[in-house]
What we know:
By secondary structure, this protein is mostly helical. It has helices spanning 3-8, 23-28, 66-74, 79-91, and strands at 31-33, 36-39. Strand 1 (31-33) and strand 2 form a beta hairpin. The protein starts with a helix and ends with a helix.
Amino acid sequence: MTVKDILTKQPWIDPDDAPELDEHFFRHAEFRIGDQVIRPATGTLTRPGRPKSTDPKQQVTLRLDAAVLDAFRAGGPGWQSRINAELRKALGLQP
């Protein structure tokens, strides 16, 4: 076995370690008999993840001076949002 094989293989997961299906799961799960839906799923089982934004951000590649980047990163988490807010302010855009 090569080093690459060791790094890329998924660890074996014991199926007995799976979480128990509790009352919450069954209260919101979809029930079917064959292809017929008896009760559709509700809650997060139907809409996983966060809601779609009406104004989604776009990923770009941008080169910034190291000093500018260091200053924003020094403020801790959320530095990318702070850069976005400063750019919006400089352009006179609504927050």
